[in-house]
Structures are given as structure tokens and as C-alpha cells.
Amino acid sequence: MRFSAATTAERLLPERLAAAARPLLQRADALFSARDETGEAGRVSLIAFAIRIVNAVIAFVSQVLLARWMGPFEYGIFVLVWVTMVIAGNLSCLGFHTSVIRFVSEYRKNSRIAELRGLLLTSRLFALASSTLIAVIGFAGLGWFEDAIESYYVVPFYLGIICLPMIALSDLLQGISRANAWAFSALSPTYLVRPVLILLCMAGALAAGYAPSAQTAVICAIMATYVTTIWQLVTVSGRADRLNGRGPRRVLFRQWLMVSMPIFLVESFFYLLTNADVLMVGRYLPPDDVAIYFATVKTLALVHFVYFAVKTGVAQRYASIWHGGDRAAFRAFAQATVGWTFWPSLAMAVVVLALGQPILALFGPHFDEGYPLLFVLVLGVVARAAVGPAESLLTMSGNQNVCARVYALTLAINIGLNVMLIPLYGLWGAAVATAVAMSFEALALSFTVWRRLGIVMAVFVPATLSKDA
User: Fold this and answer.
1) pTM surpassing 0.85?
2) For residues 164 and 150, what is the distance between their CA atoms, to the nearest angstrom?
């Protein structure tokens, strides 16, 4: 017997309410009962969306508590260090955490199991080795430039570097889960388990009498990251190895690296672009302003997670359809994902703008000073949502090189504007620079997809303008 939301509503709700909800619930039933790959992609996106909603609540509560426990100054230090480590850890994979999604889909589609086994083992070992090397370089560089860094940042940064190998390995394992459409395994460690453990560890440390400092918070983050990643390694690796069975492995490292490096550039530019404003605020303004700006950006997470949820659910499907050769299906599915991204993002943007001020006030005194910035920042987020996950479309279809160039140009614009505007206008300068850069990114990606693939990825542009790739 299969569960039906529409039937359940008819039994439990008043007749008029059940009739009004029936069309939407029937669509939900169709999504969950569909056995094709499009239905699977929709389910993964929906699961990802639900996880990101829960994550948004957990992240918000944890950041509010951390800000209140630590105060703006120490909280600002922790924010800058942790954001830097998450970016560095992700980039330490050198693109393998994304290229694995493409290769797993290709090898499974073509029954190349030996290459699949080789890829899964090699990617895990490579992510761990490369991130360890980058961590060693980070320790050396921090020691070399220690005199040029504000003293209150030095020890937290030294501690944060310890996390790099585990963050990188976690991101690689997330890619393996995404490649197999294991939405819960892909997202729950990073977005549910780790933030909860950080919060519980910090609460325990404070109860034990430790100082509510950035250093204490970073140590808690280290412990939570190692526990989460080791658990993730055991569960995801075991599941993947059982699925592919024992047998010979074929390693095509040069080929994988040649594809991964342009993706690494795309991911580097994307993550730097997403977080450049926080890093640049930390470069020019004191930790208190970093705390206010970061709290404002975290409030926007309710809008951001729609985009990331859809991106998580559709990347594997993009790769699968592309390698299957059905270009008409590829175009139709790509255009459908634009609507999946834009309309929920727009609805969330309205909610965030309506409730932003009381939300920010929860962080503590003065945090609501960031509320006016939301009206600027949300324009960039909605602009990005209006073109859907266009960069995933390019990456999964073999156009990662041109995608990297788009992001390089966007990042240059973002950093240039931040350098010019933050010293003059403070947090307003960072917000304007970010919104302009994100809007440019959306336009450039949409145009590139149309030129390269002949697909219209823009919510208000008629799909009939698509052309043969």
C-alpha cells in the first residue's frame, strides 16, 4: 500500500479545504510515486530543500546562541576563521568533490564498474592527501606572516587549520552521495549533524567553565568536524563499496585530474564569490562589524537554500541525461529547474524582508543595524535564482572551462568593488558590491548557457528562444 497525501487530506480535512489542497497534493503524490530519473531528481531536490529548512533553523539558533554567548567581538573572530576554513577545506578537494558526480553518472550509465571502483577509492585518498598538504602550507604561511595579522586572529587560525583535511574529506563524501542520489547522506552530516555537535560542544565547554571565546568555539568546531567526518566516511564509503561490489579497479587519474582542475577553478571562484564579502569586511573592518554583516548574511540563508537544494538534486540528473544523449530531454529538464529555483526563492525573499529586523535583533544589541542591508543583498540572491543552477548545467555538460572564466570575471568584479566601496561606505559598500557581482554572475551564466547549449535559463525569457546546441 502506498501513502497518498491527497487521499489522507480528504479523510482528515474539511471538504472545502481538502478540495482546495487537492491539486497541489496530487502533484506531490505524482512526484513521490514517479519512478523515472526526473522524479528521482525532484525527490532529491525536495529532500534537500527539507534538510536545508531544518538546517536554516539549526544554523540560526546556533548562531544566535553563539553570538549571545561570545559577544560581537569574539563572535566576529570565530566567524571569519570558520568561514575561511570552510572555503579552504572545500577548495582542497581540487574539484574532485564535484567531478565525481559527473564521472559516477557516466561510468554507471556505460557499465564501467572497474573505473567506478577506481574513482571512488582514488578520490577519497586524493582529497585527504591534498588537503593535508594544503594544511601544512597553511601552518607555514601563517607562521611566516604572523606579524602582519591582528594578534587576536592568530591562535584561532592556527587551530582552524587542523580542520582542513576533515572538511575536504567530508565534501568529497558529500559528492559521492550526490552522485548516487543519496540526499540524506549527502546533506545531513554537514547541515544537520556538524552544527548541532558544535553547539552542544560549546554549551558543554561553557558549563565546564571555559571562556566564551573564539578559541573555545574553534576547538569545539574541530571536535565536531572530526566526529562527523569519521562517521560519514564509515557510512558512505561502506554503502558505495557494497553497491559496486568487489573486483578490479582501473585508475584514470590523469583524465580525472584534467576534468577536475577546471571544476576546481569554478568551485574556487564560486565559493570565494559567495563569501568574498565576509572576508573583505574582515580585512577592512573590526570583528564587531564582521559579526553584524555575517548575521545579516545568515538571515538570507532562507533564500539561499532554495538554490542550493535544487542544485544538489539536479546535478546528477544533468550529467545522466547529457551522457544519455537525449538533448531534447536535457533542454526540457534544464528549463524546468529554473522555475523550481526562482519562485520558492522569491517567496522566501519576501518572508525574510518582512521578518528580518526582529530576526536580527535576536542576535543581540546592535545586530539589527544590518537590517537595511537585506534589501540590497536580496536583489543579488533573487537574480541568481532567476537563472536556476546554470553553473551546474555547464559543469555537468563538459563546459567547465568557460564556466570558470565567468566566475573569474565575476570574482574580480566583486573584489574590486569591495576594495573600492568598503573603505568609503563600510557595510553598505560590501552589500552593494555583492549584489552587483551576483547580478552580473546571473546574466553572464544565462548568456553562456544560451551560447554554448542553446538553452534559455532565465525565468522571464520565453523558452522558445532556445536553439539547437
Assistant:
1) no
2) 22
